[in-house]
Amino acid sequence: MPKHFRSTAAGLTLCALLAAPAYAQAVHPEDSEHHDEEATMNTVVVTTTRSGRVAQDQSTRIESINLEEIEEKAIMRPGNIATLVNETGGIRVQVTSPALGAANVRVQGLYGRYTQLLADGLPLYGGQASSLGLLQIPPTDLRRVDVIKGAASSLYGGSALGGVINLLSRLPGDEPEGEVLLNATSRSGQDLTGYFAAPVTDELGTSLTLGLHRQDKVDFDGDGWIDMPGYERVTARPRLFWENGEGTNIYATLGLMAEDRDGGTLDGRVAPDGQPFIQSQETTRIDGGLIANTELTDTLSAHLRTSAMVQNHEHQFGDARDEDRHESYLLEASLSGDLNRLDWVLGIAYQSDRFQSDTYPAFDYTYDVPGIFGEVDYDLNADLTLSLSGRLDDHSTYGTQFSPRLSVLYRPGNWTFRGSVAEGYFAPTPFVEEIEAAGLSRLSPLSGLREETAQTAAFDVGYRSGSIEANATFFASNVDGVTELEPFSSQAGGSLDRVELVNSDGTSQIRGTELLLRYMWEDFKITGSYLFVDSSEPDGLGGIQDIALTPRHSAGMVAMWERHGEFRLGLEMYYTGEQRVEDSPYRLQSDSFLDVGLLGEITVGPASWFINAENILDVRQTREEPILLPARAPSGRWTTDIWSRNDGFIINGGVRLRF
Q1: Is the pLDDT at 12 greater than 60, yes or no?
Q2: Domain extents for the chain?
Q3: Is 123 helix (H, G, I), strand (E, B) or coil?
Q4: Using one digit for the tens of pLDDT, what is the confidence trace for 117-167?
């Protein structure tokens, strides 16, 4: 990578993450060229441009998915990042709409709407990303994914109550480079993606990512209901990287996406009420972002980041049609500096999220949130670091919100100890999981809601020596005011045919442990993970119950034999334990299941040929029971919760060409 782009990478990554400077990281100079040499255990070693600290020295734990792992997942699911995220310890991708295939990300048992999805530190997919957003992002142009677990509202605002997933893009190198990937699946899916990057001048570099994706509709159990939605999608994202060699650098990006997605009943078939039920969504999204960084003095830097996103939908839920518009805007400026053993950041921010519906204007909202934030990191000695951060927001609907976070890091020898406590908030919207699945037609206008709040704590113990890496995390969360749907009848004495959104009474409690063990020997690497979650929420009758769709036990094992530039052979096994099922007449508790996959890839010259067998045991929920309800739910849903896989055994294969 040319020297000027190394500097640009460092500067823009700092800016991109400056909303949380403890997480701000610049790429190691050889990040894009020698990702397998970043660290002995394949963990990413990164430094902050303001302090020179590696990520392991940060008081807040950052889990990174490196380029090698991204390449593995990209040949499993080239069309989206769901598999990439789902196979990260402590994270569960939960299907929210079986009819459209939508899914969100649950971090350590917290509700999926609390997770903030970022691209290079910018909310390009919205301040509160929709569940389909996860399925509309190809991993083609990623070099790393950083994950922060637990309340991060102290510096990211109300959309990060449960954590942050930050997608970091690849960077131009010394010479022009490109990659094209072609993929096909045994379920009639096809993907074509491309990535191209080049230095234009000594100061300017550029990249372009393109994607074409499609999937046929599939009805596995022959009941006339589409179990695997069909879609056609096109994506494009150009990027510019500029650096003047004197400490100033700029990053700019533009994103375009269009998708048609179809579910519901097959042509000529009907739902249990005897009527056809078409469920479809047409989406167009355009977004843009800019990050700038400049050094004012040897110890003081100024930073700016801004983004805008406009997303239009055309929905159909049976006879109900709607056109709506989501908008999200961010403007942020900050200063950072270092004074001997103390690093600091102070900034101001303005975030705006807006929704407008043509058919249901009663649900329109505009959330304008100006705020100030800051962080101080102080090294008490060579092994002990304290970090204090906080954010004060003036929310246009929910008033003044203060979100603090205190973290501590202790690193004696090969051991690492981290502890943190934090508070945060989330501004409710109509789009809880059931409404994303059913639309707004049966929801009463929102009234009297208050913000959802959480207190989280985590204690982390890590050990690394030679080829062994181990980590244990103990976490706890209390969430108050969780919004949930309550059914009611629109006519006295009638059946339940409407829902309203209310704050639940009482506190949802989540306690758990996450374990990770990784071992590498020559060309072999094996990773094991285990997650225990004890969750409870009020049951509305004065008691408590497990939070639905939250397995108490889950575990994973990945074994990989890889010789870089020659071949890759992998085995994956993921266990998901029993979980409470809420919206189903067929059961109250799910079965446990095991998901097994095999991956093979061989490289000959510029071509890498791959084949991936997923869900070899052919786990599929419709083998156990229908996902179609016998009668439409009060919210308008026609489907049960998805607690298992619903695509069965699937094979995909293709070729990746590099030049």
Answers
A1: no
A2: 3-658
A3: coil
A4: 999 999 999 877 667 777 889 999 999 999 999 889 998 899 899 999 999
Q: What's the CA gap between 65 and 128, in Å, rounded?
A: 23
Strands 115-119 and 163-169: parallel
| pTM for the whole structure | 0.92
pLDDT of residue 494: 85
> What letter would DSSP give residue 622?
H
The secondary structure of residue 649, as a DSSP letter, is: S
Contact between 504 and 536 (Cβ < 8 Å):
no
> What is the per-residue pLDDT for 438?
92
How big is the CA angle at 246 (ends 240 and 248), to the nearest 5 degrees? Answer: 40
Name which CATH class applies to 3-658: mainly beta
Cβ 425 vs Cβ 158: under 8 Å: yes
Look at the block and give the residue holding tokens 């930050």.
166
Q: What is the pLDDT of residues 54-89, one digit of tens each?
A: 667 788 888 889 998 999 989 999 999 988 888 888
What sign for the dihedral angle of Cα 123, 126, 127, 129?
A: negative
Is residue 337 a contact partner of residue 456, using CB atoms and an 8 Å limit? Answer: no
Contact indicator for 383, 57 with CB cutoff of 8 Å: no
**Which residues, 6 or more positions from 497, have their beta carbon under 8 angstroms from its beta carbon?**
442, 489, 490, 634
* Contact predicate 527/515, CB 8 Å: no
CA distances from 616 to 110, 456, 612 (A): 29, 38, 10
Residue 357's pLDDT band (cuts 50, 70, 90): very high
Q: Provide the CA 328 distance to its chain's centre, in angstroms.
A: 17
For 598-618, give one letter per residue: b (16+ CB within 10 A) or e.
ebebebeeeebebebbbbbee
Residue with tokens 């206008």: 445
Helices (H) and strands (E) in the chain, counts: 6, 31
Coil vs helix vs strand at 541:
coil
Q: What is the pLDDT of residues 582-596, one digit of tens each?
A: 989 999 999 999 999
Token reading at 658: 């590099």
Cα separation, 520 vs 218, in Å, equals 40
Lookup: tokens for 134: 């996860």
What is the rounded end-to-end Cα distance, in angstroms, of the chain? 16
CA distance 7 to 363: 46
CA–CA dist 76, 614 (Å, integer)? 8
DSSP 242-263: EE-SSSEEEEEEEEEEEEEEEE
SS3 73: helix
Residue 44's nearest CA partner among 197, 147, 196, 155 is: 147
Type of residue at 253 = T
* Rounded-to-5 percentages of helix, strand, coil across the chain: 10, 55, 35
The helix (H) or strand (E) run that includes residue 84 is helix 82-86
Q: What is the DSSP letter of 580?
A: B
CA 447 to chain centre: 30
- Residue 55 main-chain phi, psi, to 5 deg: -60, -35
Average pLDDT on 411-416 reads 95
Q: Residue 396 and residue 392: Cα distance in Å, rounded?
A: 13
In one-letter notation, the amino acid at residue 487 is: P
